[in-house]
Design goal:
The complex is a heterodimer of chains A (322) and B (314).
Chain A: E1 4-17, E2 20-33, E3 37-41, H1 48-55, E4 63-72, E5 75-76, H2 82-88, E6 93-96, H3 100-103, H4 110-116, H5 125-138, H6 144-147, H7 157-169, E7 175-179, H8 187-204, E8 207-211, H9 215-221, E9 224-229, E10 232-238, H10 239-244, H11 249-256, H12 297-301, E11 307-310, E12 313-315, H13 318-321
Parallel strand pairs in A: 3-8, 3-9, 6-7, 7-8
Antiparallel strand pairs in A: 1-2, 1-4, 4-5, 9-10, 10-12, 11-12
Helix pairs in contact in A: 5-7, 7-8
Chain B: H1 2-29, H2 34-39, H3 45-55, H4 61-73, H5 87-122, H6 127-141, H7 144-158, H8 173-207, H9 210-217, H10 222-234, H11 236-259, H12 265-274, H13 278-306, H14 308-313
Helix pairs in contact in B: 1-13, 5-6, 5-8, 5-11, 5-13, 6-8, 7-8, 7-11, 8-10, 8-11, 11-12, 11-13, 12-13
Classes of the chains: A alpha/beta (322), B mainly alpha (314).
Bound molecules: adenosine-5'-triphosphate (ATP) and magnesium ion.
Adenosine-5'-triphosphate binds at residues 15, 17, 22, 24, 42, 44-50, 60, 62, 279 of chain A.
């Protein structure tokens, strides 16, 4: 039995809004085994970014976490002091963000930023610089020594994303979080970046939590898939199970919308008729009931729980239980 | 870069000639014969004619203006008819007083206002932020001559903490510094409020940008993030405002120098206007406009040194 790098238990996140409390994430459990790539899919607004920002402790000011724990390498991140959290951020726990054109500081050179993030290491500036050059070489940036003097605006989006990946992996993290790292890039670049991530992951042996709209990307890259819907995990399992044996009506619909093109990498998450329920005024029962065409009486009253449906495959649906 | 300087120099010449021409016209629209006013009620017609000729007042206005502009190009601002000294010497003699005053005021204001703005941005919507907000707005709205008068009354006359008038003994640095405190305070106080509001607003904007989130995710310290990563961007609009603000600083200096009976460009302008000493008025205006052109250029260069994107477009 392999260990988990990340273990999220019963995590809920609320946002205070003018209309009332918005329950963006409710009672989420998630495990990331060491060395694996876990993908999170779900429509816009289902709480993917909220999940990620609660892991890196950068939730917006109006958010609070009423319950839950996020265990990373045996310590609960939510209980850490800001100083302790800062020591983990960027070293053992790294993140690559969605929009490469705005993730780097626009007025500082690439080299300056790459050297700055090594501030904890008591080595000479020259060695820090050499390390940065090595890292840039690793992510496939040509002429890295000169790139250090460049500013982000002088680099293309794909190159900036490579720099971000280099910076995220520099300290050899045990978990890399990637929040739609390729959404802003065109298809050819996307393929390159994904290949790069996969190669580096194998080389460095880290785990990846990968968030994406792209079913194709998830299928290609991930070992394990988590399907989120309106702030809950409705189904999760091995990539093979989810794509070949989907059980939750939501997952089925996601895949059904256009099964032929799912393997194509540019495939965006298909749209399903109906809307995500209002997260401020949640009624009881199954979260998907208003868009489900197979709902039964039970779905209105009882909230289904995640149950093992197959080996390595969990589903929360009354239809499956019965 | 070269193109920028060429553009700047042309713009500077344009601004200065427009200002000088406007001033020239305004002076000659003021009623009263300058020679007569200058010499007083008991002047004889011969004396008036003599002065008029020496000041070139007997020639047509256009010729006077052309002559004046031509002389400027030669670096000659004319001769003060009263003291018979060259105007350049008079103006440059007074300039250091005003520069000291303005720089003390604005650097003091930056030293207090910028950290205050950062603090408010980092503690937005707390009590401390609200209090500094109210105080800042109060500071902005207080006119410098009112602050000058009241600080003179309170700190110099009543409390006797600081000297009331003059610029201090020449060569005695400490004496000159104490004479600088109240006038600089009068000019700088509204800038403290202004800068802190400005920095707060742009700081809040920058702190919400994606790259700050990244910097936090890399575990950089809060100090590095705020003062090295965010402030370098947030300060850009402030630098521009200070550069353009040179105009306001000079006009504030005029009032303040009069209130504190301090030597300087402002006092020189007022004195020479009341005595209709036109060459001196024109010389002072010219130098003030030159200061404005220089300060806006410097602020452009400072911004270019901070932001590579601006540098690339220079
Ligand atoms: N600061 C906030 N205040 C109030 N509500 C918020 C805030 N941030 C997010 N939300 C809400 O929380 C829910 C989840 O948002 P989140 O950004 O996590 O979704 P997402 O899955 O990342 O969507 P996307 O794919 O569009 O990025 C949404 O309903 C959103 O409107
Ligand atoms: Mg998101």
């Amino acid at each position: 039995m392999s260990e988990n790098v990340l273990r999220i238990r019963d995590l809920s996140v609320n946002y205070q809004t003018d209309r009332g409390v918005l329950k963006a994430i409710r009672h989420v459990n998630l495990d990331i085994p060491k060395g694996s790539i876990v993908g999170v899919v779900g429509e816009s607004g289902c709480g993917k970014s909220t999940l990620i920002t609660s892991i890196i402790r950068q939730l917006d000011d109006n958010a609070d976490i009423p319950n839950g724990s996020i265990e990373f390498e045996k310590q609960d991140l939510l209980k850490l002091s800001l100083d302790k959290m800062r020591n983990i951020s960027g070293t053992k726990l790294s993140i690559v963000f969605q929009d490469p054109m705005s993730t780097l500081n626009p007025v500082l050179s690439i080299g300056r930023q790459m050297i700055d993030i090594q501030y904890r290491d008591k080595i000479s500036k020259k060695r820090k610089k050499q390390r940065s050059i090595d890292m840039l070489t690793k992510v496939g940036i040509p002429d890295p020594r000169n790139q250090l003097n460049q500013y982000p605006y002088e680099l293309s989006g794909g190159m900036q994303q490579r720099v971000s990946i280099a910076m995220a992996l520099q300290a050899g993290p045990s978990l890399l979080i990637a929040d739609e790292p390729t959404t802003a890039l065109d298809t050819t670049l996307e393929v390159q970046i994904l290949k790069l991530l996969k190669d580096l992951q194998e080389e460095m042996g880290c785990s990846i939590l990968f968030v994406s709209h792209h079913l194709g990307v998830i299928a290609e890259l991930c070992d394990h898939v988590v399907v989120m819907y309106a702030g809950e995990i409705v189904e999760h399992g091995s990539t093979y199970e989810i794509f070949n044996n989907p059980a939750h009506p939501y997952t089925v619909k996601l895949l059904e919308c256009d099964p032929a093109s799912i393997s194509k990498k540019q495939r965006l998450l298909p749209t399903i008729p109906g809307e995500i329920p209002d997260l401020i005024n949640l009624s009881g029962g199954c979260i998907f009931k208003n868009r489900c065409d197979q709902s039964i009486d039970r779905c209105d009253k009882h909230t289904p729980l995640l149950n093992e449906f197959n080996k390595n495959h969990f589903v929360s649906c009354h239809l499956i239980e019965s | 870069m070269l193109l920028y300087f060429i553009k700047r120099i042309f713009l500077g010449i344009l601004i200065i000639s427009v200002a000088v021409t406007l001033m020239f016209c305004m002076i000659h629209l003021v009623p009263g014969d300058p020679a007569r006013i200058m010499l007083g009620p008991r002047a004889t017609p011969e004396m008036i004619a003599d002065i008029s000729m020496r000041m070139g007042l007997d020639q047509p206005l256009v010729i006077q203006l052309m002559k004046f502009l031509g002389n400027i190009l030669k670096g000659d601002l004319g001769i003060d008819v009263i003291s018979s000294r060259p105007v350049t010497a008079i103006v440059f003699g007074q300039l250091p007083y005003t520069l000291w005053l303005i720089f003390t005021a604005i650097f003091g204001a930056m030293l207090i206002g910028i950290p205050l703005g950062c603090y408010s941005a980092l503690h937005r919507n707390t009590l401390a932020d609200r209090v500094t907000g109210v105080i800042s707005v109060a500071c902005i709205t207080a006119p410098s001559f009112v602050v000058a008068l009241y600080s003179l009354l309170i700190f110099a006359v009543t409390l006797k903490w600081f000297p009331a008038i003059g610029a201090g003994v020449k060569g005695d640095f400490f004496d000159q510094a104490t004479h600088l405190v109240l006038p600089a305070f009068a000019i700088g106080i509204s800038w403290v409020g202004y800068l802190s509001r400005l920095v707060r607003a742009s700081m809040l904007e920058v702190l919400g940008e994606n790259h700050i989130r990244t910097a936090r995710a890399y575990g950089l310290t809060e100090f590095t993030i705020v003062y090295r990563y965010a402030l370098k961007i947030a300060i850009l609009p402030t630098v521009t405002v200070i550069g353009v603000g040179m105009g306001f600083l000079i006009s504030a200096a005029v009032f303040t120098e009069v209130v504190f009976a301090r030597p300087g460009l402002g006092k020189l302008i007022i004195d020479s206007i009341t005595t209709r000493n036109y060459p001196v008025v024109m010389g002072s205006v010219l130098i003030s406009t030159g200061l404005f052109v220089i300060s806006t250029t410097i602020s452009d260069l400072v911004n270019a040194s901070l932001d590579p994107r601006i540098r690339a477009n220079l």
